[in-house]
Design brief:
The chain is α/β, with parallel strands linked by helices. The chain is built from 17 helices and 15 strands.
Length: about 425
Amino acid sequence: MTIICGTDLSPLSLGALDVALALASQRGDDEVVLLHVADTAGNELVREAALDKARAQLDAIVKARPATPKIRAELSTGEPNEILVGFAETEGSDLIVIAHRSANANDKRLGSTANKIISHTHVTVLAVRDPEPWLAFARRERPLRILLGIDDSAVCDLGIQWTHGLRERGPVDVVLGAIYYPDDAASHYGLHAKTQVDRDPEIEALMSRDLLRRFGAEGAGITARPQRGLGRIGDHVLELARDEKVDAIVVGTGQKTGLGRLGSVSSIIVTDATQSVICVPPQAAISTIVVPRLRSALVATDLSQFANRAVAYAFAQASDEVHIVHVLKNDADANEVELATALRALAPRGARQKVVAHVIRGDEPAVTLARCAARHGVDVICISSHGRSGIKRALVGSVADQLLRATRLPVLVLRPA
């Protein structure tokens, strides 16, 4: 795949070209496409003069840069964001590199349309603020320091894989950033919300564990930084980026509505960040580099014969630990010690995984299970569905269905024949 670099021919956009060339050289690409969309306002003579001037400038840029990878200069006319987006998709590009702000006071079209490019393209966009950290990274003079914004969206997984791909090509320090609101986070983990203003160390410890697992790599250069939120998430991400002194922010773009289409968090980051920003859209073609590891599983059972069959599937999924859970109503009269013994007895003969039995109480089984799974940091939930249908299902409800809506984790549902 090819890197497309959009340029307005300003010095700042030429810095973005240097970054594109450095990244292409790291990847072993043969060429970088340099695209300029000329301003053709005015009469025919003015337009022809503008095109001739742009061609001459593009030729000078190509001659001034190294031969490897080569630069293929392209000149077009029209709306810059539409032309760049369409050209990248036609070329099958996997990365668009642009300067986020134009240094040309007379032509701010590229800088002013950066948000439009990001909000419409299916290709990952690198908006370069300062080229030097990227060039030093490419020369292996120092690690590139990146803040990877992590949330519960699927597009976040693409940002994670993009970051892993960058780490394969050079030294990268990664700050895993997540913004939490104490009441929501406490509900997610099934904890009591202690405060709405101060940091919650218990929640942050659980979140740090989950961030590292979500990223799929630990060790030197990887830091988890959950941060308590009070206002807009985007503002907190920018604050975290400043505190951590990062060179770039990686963020997924929802592309739903308005500037729509960026979503409020990513639009704030793209507009106000003083660092470079990498925007990964939900349709981006990004290879999976690090495969999620299923270390632990939670399996729920009501101790019926069919529900117990899900236990074996939990052991098939998890490499290290299996939590076997039975939910009681809050007012149920039961011997919890005997129930826990019965749960442990369900483990397959000779299983090597650690077995943990939980008898927990809650009047909403699905929510109670989701909170238990989050609190213990499991990677997958297994459950049997009793296959109710029609009026009975409408009246009673399916715990399996409700669990799918209550949890953020993958759920393996064992269905009746």
